[in-house]
Amino acid sequence: MERNDGADEPGWDVDPEDEISAVVEMAGHHLKLRREAAGLRVAEFGEAIGYGEDLIRKIERGARIPRPEYLDKVDEVLGAGGLVSAMKKEMREARYPKKVRDLAKLEAQAVEIGLYSNHNIHGLLQTEEHMRALFEMRQPAFSQDELERGVAARMGRQAIFERSPAPSLHFVQEEATLRRTIGGRMVLRRQLEHLAEVAQLRSVTFQVMPLDCESHAGMGGLIEVLKFRDGTAVGRSEGAFGSHPVTDPKQLRILELRYGMIRAQALRPRESLAFIEQVLGET
Asked: How confident is the model at residue 68 (pLDDT cuts 50, 70, 90)?
């Protein structure tokens, strides 16, 4: 069997300062107990599952987050009947940076989300290759581990489109973000095709803010407003309140007012879909 010693994996090393490290350590201890109960030494276990001893030891002491395919292989070899594979969701979430986990939790609880993006296509709308191109051009450059964690975290947040009942999602994108050839023309083309598909979901309202708009309430930058079932909300704007999340009703009212004006000034949803198709024809 071909062995995987972990050298070709992004890493998923655990930050000991992160509160999630205790969860990963507990998972690693559980995997170690199962291996020992099966009477397998690390070397024998590595041969059986096709992974190197160093990687196995790191996972078992909680220093590295196991990948889903690793857990599946362990489950198969130990005959755990799916009990090990059941850890995949928890370990997948553990890979994400803390601030992304917090954001994903809020998005998972929200019943309505309003988003205005002026610099990049919003992360919930990005294709994997588009977001990968964005992460690759960051300066100072991300390590491979940071890049892969960033991509995985952003892709994980897109599970919001599969929620049932689906939240009401409202997106407004600047025209410039639909024309910027991040990653090259083919990457942009596939990104635009993806936007056209998402824009037609019943739970989604997608609008484009054209460059020739003379009145624009979003010149302060990105705006996010998330509303929850209990009537509470949280918002953030690059151009207000120091970019910090706000929950005060008066501050939220300001963000909602600005976002409402942005939506009124942008192209209507059908016009926006036609605009995407127009840009696709030019790409």
From this structure: confident
Q: What CATH number labels 98-282?
A: 3.30.870
Cα 77 to Cα 12: distance, rounded to the nearest angstrom: 23
Superfamily of chain region 21-94: lambda repressor-like DNA-binding domains (1.10.260.40)
Whole-angstrom CA distances from 76 to 49, 53, 85 are: 9, 18, 9
What is the b/e burial string over 138-173, where b = at least 16 CB atoms within 10 angstroms of the residue's CB?
eeeebeeeebbbbbbbbebbbebeeeeeebebbbbb
Q: What angle do CA 178, 129, 269 make, to 5 degrees?
A: 30
Q: How far is 18 from 39, CA to CA, in rounded Å?
A: 33
Domain boundaries, the chain: 21-94, 98-282
Q: What mean pLDDT comes out for the span 136-154?
A: 87
**What pLDDT, on the 0 to 100 scale, is given for residue 113?**
97
Q: pTM score, two decimals?
A: 0.70
